[in-house]
Records
---
Amino acid sequence: MDLRLTVEELAFRDEVRAFFRQALPPAIARKCSNGQRLSREDLVCWTRILHARGWATPAWPVPWGGTGWSAVQQYIFKEELHLAPAPEPLSFNVNMIGPVLIAFGTEAQKREFLPRIARLDYWFCQGFSEPGAGSDLAALRTEARREGDHYIVNGQKLWTSTAHHANWCFLLVRTDPTAKKQEGISYLLMDMASPGITVRPIVTIDGHHETNEMFLENVRIPVSRRIGEENRGWSYAKFLLGQERSGIARVGVSKMRVRRARELARQVACGPGTLADDAGFRERVAALEVELKALEMTQMRLIAESSSTASGKADPKSSILKLKGSELQQAATELLLEVAGYAAMELDREFLRGAEHAISGEDWAACIAPNHYWARHVSIVGGSNEIQRNILAKSVLGM
């Protein structure tokens, strides 16, 4: 199998790379390079720049705003976006609710939601996890009781990322409490302005407010906002998770972090030279780059296989990408943490006066520790790494 890019694919890569250099606003580019969190306005601004170029939803079908790119072109686009680095379009919109609506929504739902999702006029959050129903998602207890043309929803959702920004939520609810665990679940779209919704912030170990807990008390959701059939929501959720997992390796993100670590290491004094000259550091960088190349080749093989079979189903081998990709993302943040040293922490500089750890421009280090802490979650989202091992054991190894 020849995994090299064709002449046409190399030309496409150059086109994408040039667009990112020209179109990405400098203020957003600086935030991405420094690992700073983007504001809601930053992401909306960049999404609309991509939308104007026709690149906001590259994997969607062409009639609904897709590009018609091949799987390899989509891979190239995402890698160049990560390497720029530029923000990814909101995953809840582009990779999750959008494909679900395209596959299972009514024509009326598609016409209403898809154009607004693509432009980020509608910002969706995901109402799946609950207390006691995270990795075992089918144990969810949020209840939706039907009354005429509405569902009355009561319950609690947890780890609802960006709910404080969102104006819509896709959520799983139990519509038949007497059914078996994976049955009796329905998939609803909820307007976040509806009465009865309370969103409370959760500040995570990185010191940021990214996720939330959400309380639902007699929230009325029209039946017309249900995706697909009643009590079939588990099937739609599995489809969504397959879509999420297929792009979760983020090889480009890890490549960008390793590149950044090499650049910054030249600013860190170490013996007679810099950290970039240290043999041990260079060995760790090389080992990480080798693993990234192996993961990249694995992803390209899976892309080639999916292009030839075109079954439309998530390949269970994509769990390899999720499992190893999350581990390498975490390893790359650990490398950056080594480069920054104590400058990555919010410490009392007066107390440390005279310490021998000469780093020029300590501002670049301020986001490294928080991003390292934040990266702990990537081995959990999209199905924990333990679940990925189970999938590989059953579906690939036949154990």
---
Amino acid sequence: MNGFAESSDGTDTIAALSTPPGRSGVAVIRVSGPQAANIGNVLLTPWPLLERVATLCDVRTDTNGALLDRALATFFQAPASFTGEDTLEISTHGGYLIPALVLAALLKHGAREAMPGEFTRRAVMNGRLDILQAEAVGDLIDASTHAMHHTAIAQLDGSLSREILRLRDYLVELEALIGYDIDFPEEDDGPIPRDRILATTTTAADAIDTLLKTAPMGELLREGAIVVIAGQPNVGKSSLFNALLGKARAIVTDVPGTTRDALEAVIDVRGWPIRLVDTAGMRTTTDVVEQLGVEVSERYVASAHVILLCNDDSPGYESVEHRIAKLSRAPIVQVRTKSDLVTKRDETPSSHVSVSVIPRAGLDTLLDRITTVLDEHYGTPLVDAPVITRARHRQALLRARSELLLFDEAWQGNTLPAPVAAVHLRDAIGAIEELVGTIDVEDVLDKLFRSFCVGK
């Protein structure tokens, strides 16, 4: 089977396990398509079911076959279902065997196994979701922080779709004005005032720019802000990593060079999803394995959004600071580790954040400093405003903006006839329509749903 080629018309019935396989209390198997009710009639007793009501049923291999399980079944008649098709959901006992047996019976009686993301794809094709909302389904499943969860929920609810459609309306209005001017040049009211066309063009361009400005924030919300803990060996990096996580993930010893690779974990801090990274100590070494760890550290430093540069007054701090400055332009937060050992002769500069993991001192202050730096350099996470979260969104908006500027240039400079200038508007509208899927975009759909899990 090649991608969705065999099922793009939605005339067959698909089935899949929608929960992860393995030992669990419940497993959910989903069936969608024109034969869902017929298959349910063969396998489930009682049948028919009351629509949208969970009913306790016997699940058998066929009408008079062996009992596989007693399960809860719910039937959704088209179009009032997730996919817009007749849909049957069977909640069996969990484990490996029972769900596999039930799925096998479904496939035996006319269903075929769904491809990754095929249920959501059908929801798009049947008008239950647009492409932006479908992407939000994937983001919601993958969300590991409150910020990404909130953003995905808002997008699934249609906040970004509504903004994109509002932008499309601006462009369609502009196209209509130009079309009227082309088709009815001799009307009594005269040609459309150029100021009106200019104002509508400016409004549309501003709306595009407003969305494009959210791209860096959207990327950080989706991928997480990379906060790298860096410094020399044995200055307390791994201890700080564990303390910020609240559990021991990194091995902590007094032996320099213990961390040979980077450890990464996601934490949710003041609305920011943060990918916290513990790295190997940065120093010159002849140990081949440790040097590999140092190279990994340098790669993380180069991609960091914020760097926590740790120091316990060990010699060589300045050389590490200089090394990091050559690798990255990310903001650096100076962290004075082991602050419980600081004496009056060895006071910490006010620009540093003092922490001690043993009495857990200074950790909240450090987290506050991290989020302040992120806010200053990347903007405050947007709570309610639409945010573009994918490169696809950005590319489509940039294409629309480029076409709109080409139209504006041609219109104001009278360098092209109006019908030719209007072609740029049509291309801008096409780029916007691709975002929500109001035109045929099979390649966009195929690329999107390959990343989904089977059963969704």
---
Amino acid sequence: MISYKIADLVAILDCKVKGEISSEEVSGLTPFFQSKEDTVTFAENEKFLKKLHETKARFIIVPDIPLPDDLGKTYLVVNGNPRELMPKILGFFKRKAKPFSKLIEDSAQFGENVNIAPNAYIGHDVVLGDNVTIYPNATIGEGVTIGDNTIIYSNAVVREFCKIGKNCVLNPGCIIGGDGFGFVKIGSNNTKIEQIGAVELEDFVEVGSNSTIDRGAIGNTIIKKYTKIDNLVQVAHNVIIGENSLIISQVGISGSTEIGNNVTLAGQSGVAGHVKIGNNVMIGGRGAVTGNVLDNQVLTGFPLVPLKDDLKIRASLKKLPEALKKIKELEKLIK
């Protein structure tokens, strides 16, 4: 199991320590609300600083402000905004990849009846279950696990440390675990934030051709069982999509969005970041989700309205030119 020395992190951040260091090592960096006791998290703004008691992490990276000392936490106090230190923080916790040496690395492990085509790359410490099929020119990165009966078609990429469940299908050209679009302004420059999470696809998930599912910045992007994703879909970092959902072609889902079970996002609909969509929701084609959506709704349009209302609005728009003409005639009569 990988561990990181707190003393090394303190040195890199050049920060002050407030509280006891009860352990010299931690297991990693985790999201604020999904933390474990032996991990580090950070509270960059008032939203998190008000809820320090809700995170399980023992170590919290914080700005230099008054902090409660009765929570049993150890604070790593930095100068300025912790977000500006994100490149250093995530760079410290990013796992170092092993160098490539051959098409199928010696440490890879295979179940029974695995079928690997020529020119596929199988990385270090990969674990393939029974009856896995990998087509030509696919790339399976270091530390990936793939469950039984899964098919990976040509030119698909599963990047390092991602997890693919049983009976999944990755169609040609899809990318699982590419870097999320994470940058922070430092001075006047856009500076990359390393993406140290991964992607987890549960069982019976299918991903269409040329669709992309980005790895989490911290923590994982998760697609739950029996969800099907069409071609040309973008799923950003740290998104969670529930079970039995359908994501249709050209949908874009922004980062840290949570989507419930049995949700359908029709073609070219878009979802803003950090919103929640409930269970049994259908968003019509080109619908724009900019806020939370409750369970059991059929919505469409921009702004979103119930489908029946949207149909009435569209029907009314056809009558608008004639209505404007009548209004102008009435204005003349009034004058």
---
Amino acid sequence: MGIKFGFASDNTAGVHPVILEEIRSANTGHTIGYGYDRYTEEALGLFKSHLGPETETFFVFTGTAANVLSLSGVTRSWNSVITASTAHLEQDECGAAEKFTGCKVLTVDTADGKISAKSVEKHMHGFDFEHHSQPLVISITQSTEMGTVYSVDEIRELAEFTHDHGMLLHMDGARIANAAVSLDLPFRSFTTDAGVDILSFGGTKNGMMYGEAVCFLKSGLSGGFKYIRKQSMQLASKMRFISAQYTAYFRDDLWKKCATHSNRMALILAGKISRLNGIIITQPVQSNGVFVIMPQRVAESVCKKYFFYPWDEKTSEYRLMAGWDTTEEDIEGLVRVFREELDRLK
């Protein structure tokens, strides 16, 4: 397939040159393995500075590991986790949450990817009843799989509801940088300070090579997690190469520059697509994703040159993602092909 540029996901992009240079810089001499090195010490300190002094951070290889293992660290097999029906925990983790935690995943239907206290209420029953799984964690995604962004007030309200029921609030932050840029707020303001207990902090979709972080934001939650990480085969022996990436990521707000660019590219893309007859934007463009309904024939033809994924094949809805390296020329090329294919339908 002669693809010119992919709009399928922000993880199809390469690694930012600054990240690559930091990896190269760390590739000198010998260090003690498994995280007992100066690179990891520096990176862990940066997480505390961005998220709060109580933050305990553990690096893993993938986003799936960050989500699933963070839940494994606080749940037992008789618990349940509540999340949006669109969440990665439900749609894209291949049942890993159920396999590794033993918990039930309970879902809430949502049109925009966001859940609220009201929508979760249907699962708030059976507490202390041995015939019923015990709800313990509510998991939200920021920014959501639909490209929408929770406000601070929305997160705080959900956190209060969660804690009032003796539960914990987890945030899947695979695209947390895009949310921070959209809100124009520091990470801590809509995580730790808003009542989030556990955070999966991602960078792979925003210019990093690999490596995600499990962040326990409240003291007393991380006990035993180092053993869970090891048993789950997520303890990196050469951890410095994950840690160094995060050092570069935070330095000079590289994360912000990358996410600002991808968010801006998504807005430009949405603006151009909205002027095409036959394509309908279905979600507010609040981060770096654009969701559209278009004729299936058009999507199939365009995908041969500019690949992207279907979101809901029943409604012919598709997802277009911008990345840190998306250019206006890429967007112009995509829109031109869209226009050509739409004209063929006339």
